[in-house]
Specification:
Chain lengths: 211, 247
């Protein structure tokens, strides 16, 4: 759970950084998208590195979902009679949202891939072969931006607890100071990644990033 | 003061239970929570009804025998054991919901009494050190760094009451296990069995049907001895080390 989660954190960090290329305009963004496909050539075939990364991510996803399902199942079996009254005292909102929030993210990721990678769906009906134009068309639609921002909230929550939880699972928070640091790192990673991702849709909708 | 009690009643392990409501008058704020239940039981006895069964022993907060889910919190609203909770923590006219620890690894025996034998079996699996009996060795022959000794002492305060399991949304006993693993693993005497201890205890824990830890932190908030979450990190660290050593 922790190891696969850390792979995802690395991925979303790079993905978020790449998205910010949209602020450099049409050509810079599309060149970046093309570069992702040619990186490592001629040692690697076209899209070679991309497929290596995709394979690692797919394996991580299977491991992550499998572990989550196993934990969920164990939790249900561990308490078959529920409390009439149960208060949550210390747990963060994010920690209690991990399971349903994780499922939300899974659904979002499926839509996101259909939207931009596998299906290439342009909700405005325009062209889909130009990554930058597809991006602007998508986020120029207010409800698409809303869906993405909701997903980024779910991502922020997942990262907030996930960062601390993975540090704990790896046995790295063996004293009070390390625990505080890991929890602070959770906030930082959540805000930087979800905040960074949110910039592009918001600025497209605001009319700053245009075709 | 007067309180309304909603208490889980279950005649035996096989029967189905339900919440029953009792009105109790003349409760003093100086009574402990268990004394309040004693008063209720005297009333029930007087009426020829079956008294409410609950666990208690020392009533000094040191044995870990008592433990009730009070208004949705393990051991009630204060950071202490149920026996050290006093009625001054409640107001006149309050409704108090009392339930047993809920975990399938802690089956209800009767009313509010649960069988915490699963904890004993986890301890038997690895929560011990092997030493020769006979005369005590010279205390200074095995030096222990002060910080290690303090940490071991601090987590050795775990009384095995089960509040961590009761409060955990996953029904995990990781805080209990972590406390024992940290307590013994911090000391020189605990080193020979350090790897097998964590592997065997975790295996027994999972076998008993406790849930897996997701680092939510409800356990440590409910713990009357304030065992910190870092004992679970220590448990995980020791488990990784043991696996690296081929266990």
């Amino acid at each position: 759970m922790a190891a696969s989660g850390i792979i995802f954190i690395g991925f979303v960090l790079l993905h978020m950084y790449g998205n910010l290329k949209a602020f450099s305009g049409h050509d810079a963004y599309n060149e970046y998208a093309e570069h992702l496909r040619t990186i490592g050539e001629p040692m690697l075939p076209r899209e070679g590195l991309l497929w290596i990364i995709r394979s690692v991510l797919i394996v991580s996803l299977v491991v992550h979902v499998y572990c989550a399902a196993a934990l969920w199942k164990r939790a249900n079996k561990a308490r078959t009679t529920k409390y009439v009254m149960k208060k949550n005292i210390a747990s963060s909102f994010s920690s209690r949202l991990m399971r349903w929030g994780g499922l939300t993210l899974l659904l979002f990721i499926i839509w996101h891939l259909v939207n931009f990678t596998i299906g290439k769906v342009n909700v405005q009906g325009g062209s889909t072969n130009d990554p930058y134009n597809l991006l602007v068309d998508t986020f120029d639609t207010w409800w698409m931006t809303l869906i993405y921002l909701a997903a980024m909230f779910a991502l922020a929550m997942h990262l907030h607890h996930g960062v601390w939880s993975s540090a704990q699972t790896l046995g790295l928070t063996n004293n009070a100071r390390a625990r505080r640091n890991a929890k602070s790192l959770g906030w930082i990673v959540a805000i930087v990644i979800a905040g960074g991702f949110s910039l592009v849709p918001i600025f497209v909708l605001a009319g700053v990033i245009t075709k | 003061m007067k309180v309304t009690l909603k208490i889980w009643r279950q005649p035996d392990a096989a029967s189905k239970g339900a919440m029953h409501t009792y009105e109790l008058d003349g409760v003093s704020e100086d009574m402990s929570f268990l004394e309040m239940l004693d008063v209720l039981n005297e009333e029930l006895n007087g009426k020829g009804e079956d008294p409410v069964a609950f666990d208690s022993d020392c009533r000094e907060g040191i044995c870990g025998m008592c433990g009730l889910m009070i208004n949705g919190q393990a051991h009630g609203p204060e950071v202490t054991t149920t026996c050290q909770l006093h009625m001054r923590s409640f107001k006149d006219g309050d409704e108090i919901v009392i339930e047993p620890w809920r975990a399938d690894a802690f089956p209800v025996i009767k009313d509010l009494v649960v069988d915490r034998g699963a904890f004993d079996r986890i301890i038997q699996a690895g929560g011990y050190i092997s030493v020769n009996t006979g005369s005590a060795p010279e205390a200074h022959s095995v030096p222990v760094p002060r910080d290690d000794a303090l940490r071991a002492f601090n987590v050795a305060t775990c009384i095995g009451c089960g509040a961590c399991v009761a409060a955990c949304p996953n029904g995990s006993a990781s805080l209990f296990m972590g406390a024992k693993i940290t307590h013994l693993g911090e000391l020189p005497q605990g080193q020979p069995e350090r790897d097998t201890r964590v592997v065997d205890m975790v295996a027994q824990h999972d076998h008993e049907g406790f849930g897996g830890c997701t680092n939510i932190g409800e356990c440590t908030a409910a713990c009357p001895k304030e065992i910190p979450l870092d004992v679970i990190s220590r448990l995980n660290w020791d488990l990784h080390q043991a696996m690296r050593h081929g266990h």
